[in-house]
Each structure stands twice: as C-alpha cells, then as structure tokens.
C-alpha cells in the first residue's frame, strides 16, 4: 500500500493542480498534524482517497469539533448544521481505526510548553495511551497483531526530537514501541531545514519516520 504522509508545512508539490497525476498510485493519506483543514480537504477532494489525521500544537481552530475542551464549544455546536465537521477526513486522535487491512492508531499533540490546546505532560500522554490498550489486545486476538502504524505529532524521546521543551519527544512512545511493536511510527513536529537531517530511524521492530512536509510510505517496500 502506498501512503501519502503530510505534516506541518503546505507542500507545493501537493497543493498543486497536478496532484492527481503526481499521486495517482496513492491508496491512503495520513496527516501528522499542524496543517490547515482546508489543505487536507483539498487533498481528499483531489485524490478521492481516505485521509486520517491527528492534531498537532498549531492550526487548532477545528480542535473543539472533536474535543470538548474549548470555551467556544457551544458556538461550534450551535453552528453544527452549517459545518462539514469531517472536512472529508477522519480524525484518529487517541483512537484506533482499521483502514484497508491496516490497523492504525493516532495520537495528537506535543509536549506541554505553554499550556496551549493539544499539549500534554509526559504523564498525561501516558494515561491517554493506556486507555487504548484494551482495544490493542482485542486486535491481537482478532488479527494476530496489536497495530501496524502509530501516527503521532510529536516524536519519541531521543529520536528526531530537539532539546527545547516544545520539541522534546515523549518517553512513553518508546515504551509503546517496545511493547506493541508497530511496523511504523509516523510523526511530524520536527521541521527539516537540511536535506541531510535524518528522517528515518529504526527502533527495535519499529521504523520511525519524520513525515515533515510530505513523505511517500510504501508499506510493501519499507520495514
């Protein structure tokens, strides 16, 4: 399966009238956060393929649609009949979804650094992940594996992350990879300004990929 992964930056090769020709063989789209919903809507409407997404720590205008944590939630509820809540995409933040035979789990947000929306302490993130463990064990019984792909916004601690608190990775992601062995962890959040910066790292049985801007994942070729 070929997956178009996007995150953090609008890419001119994607946001382009030639998108259908350039990505004609794409089966699925995954967004690792920090992108406008209108951009995701453009990709979905152009390629007519399923799109799964998580939120990052920016571009959070639509965050209250999916999480009842904003003081403006009532305003959104009152306008609900006039809004396309899905934008043609499926939100998988702190959820697990089976898509085209792949089991995909999503985790939104970054490390808490200024008490903004969709920011979590290490302990908060760990608790959110723990709530999904019963579903993972059901997957193991039913499909013979816990999951195939973990989609996060922030990276794991010590893998592609930075020293500042905002861009620091989560330690619990390391534990999760060791315990549940996803084939891939796809993250964004860490901008790649140098083409020589490392984008792909192997951690135990998981291939960790920084999908900043855009990245094509062929699940049949990469491992």
From TrEMBL:
Residues 22-192 form the Calcineurin-like phosphoesterase domain. SUPFAM superfamilies: Metallo-dependent phosphatases. Pfam families: Metallophos. InterPro entries: Calcineurin-like_PHP, Metallo-depent_PP-like, UPF0046_metallophosphoest. Signal peptide: none annotated. GO terms for molecular function: hydrolase activity. It comes from the Bacteria. PANTHER family: CALCINEURIN-LIKE PHOSPHOESTERASE DOMAIN-CONTAINING PROTEIN (PTHR12905:SF0), METALLOPHOSPHOESTERASE (PTHR12905). This is Metallophosphoesterase.
């Amino acid at each position: 399966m070929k997956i178009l992964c996007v995150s953090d930056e609008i890419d001119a090769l994607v946001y382009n009238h030639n998108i259908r020709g350039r990505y004609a063989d794409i089966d699925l789209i995954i967004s690792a956060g920090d992108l406008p919903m209108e951009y995701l809507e453009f990709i979905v409407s152009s390629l007519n393929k399923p799109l799964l997404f998580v939120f990052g720590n920016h571009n959070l205008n639509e965050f209250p649609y999916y999480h009842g944590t904003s003081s403006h939630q009532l305003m959104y509820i009152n306008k609900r009949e006039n809004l396309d809540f899905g934008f043609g995409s499926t939100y998988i933040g702190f959820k697990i979804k089976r898509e085209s035979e792949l089991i995909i789990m999503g985790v939104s947000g970054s490390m808490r650094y200024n008490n903004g929306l969709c920011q979590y302490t290490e302990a908060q993130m760990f608790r959110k992940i723990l709530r999904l463990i019963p579903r993972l064990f059901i997957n193991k019984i039913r499909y013979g594996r816990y999951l195939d792909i973990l989609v996060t916004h922030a990276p794991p601690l010590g893998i592609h992350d930075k020293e500042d608190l905002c861009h620091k990775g989560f330690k619990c992601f390391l534990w999760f990879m060791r315990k549940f062995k996803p084939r891939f962890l796809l993250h964004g959040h860490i901008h790649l300004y140098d083409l020589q910066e490392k984008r792909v790292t192997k951690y135990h049985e998981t291939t960790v990929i920084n999908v900043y801007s855009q990245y094509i994942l062929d699940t049949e070729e990469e491992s």
